[in-house]
């Protein structure tokens, strides 16, 4: 479980002298790299694919650094080729899964089963996309994409390619182009440079990182933040006063009642209304009470779509 770096949480807590700060979290699972044949379940591929299917998104780390002391299984450094090799195994696995369900859908359509026709059309679109070497996430039909996601197809999941580099701060052009063609994202992680910084005095390392313009969010934090964006999550906060300020991750488009349920099921069941204020307006006010006095708080009903950075206090009755 990894904390999601978010300076807004600290600002909310500092403005109100709240001692306890609880960041949002994402779970990252390290799964062994896939080899040729994994898509057909060979070797450890079957177990690894089963683990991958349980995830919400995939982060694919590829080598983009040269070091003779660190061998590569293929005796070369080619991040695009590495990415393509694993993409192929995921496509093969999805193709087998989709073909089995397509055969059942065809049988159901011949038997006149209700809804079989729509399922059949979606599966045919998915299989056609996979046969063309493209991931299921790129199927044009929205209904087909929903079916692919419901099936847990690996190529339907959001993907982030991370280029493991020595010093480069941007992913190789070829990998960035591959990611764009796959409907995915790409990020460079200068691991070699980060290892050097960790061996230095913290103050000197901070100065060098600033000189190199590495940014405020680096290393593992950069991966976590990228994974959070990949999942298309938004953050709302609770923290109208002590003892705790907390960041809550929710799916984009979640309404206020469902967001309240993220905090506790009783809040969703007995939801009455939510008091809402943007995080920066609360920090400027200095406290929930002053924000109410300044009329910067607003009341929202259960269908209000929670926005990025909202601070919420839920009124409920059960």
What report would you give on this structure?
By secondary structure, the protein is an alpha/beta fold. It has two domains: 57-230, DNA polymerase, domain 1; 233-316, Roll (Ubiquitin-like (UB roll)), CATH 3.10.20. It has 13 helices and eleven strands. The chain has helices at 7-15, 45-53, 79-110, 116-131, 142-150, 173-181, 191-198, 202-211, 219-230, 256-263, 265-269, 279-285, 288-293, and strands at residues 2-3, 20-22, 25-26, 58-63, 159-165, 185-190, 233-238, 244-251, 271-278, 298-300, 310-316. The strands form four sheets. It has a three-stranded mixed beta sheet with strand order 2-8-7, with helices on both faces. Helix 1 runs parallel beside helix 12 (279-285), helix 3 (79-110) packs antiparallel against helix 4 (116-131) and helix 4 (116-131) crosses helix 5 (142-150). The protein is flat, with a radius of gyration of 24 Å. The relative contact order is 0.14.
Radius of gyration over C-alpha positions, nearest whole angstrom? 24 Å
Number of helices: 13
What is the global morphology?
Answer: flat
CATH topology title of the largest domain? DNA polymerase, domain 1
CATH superfamily of the largest domain: Obg-related GTPase Ych/YyaF, coiled-coil domain
Number of domains: 2
**Helix and strand pattern:** EHEEHEHHHEHEHHHEEHHEHHEE
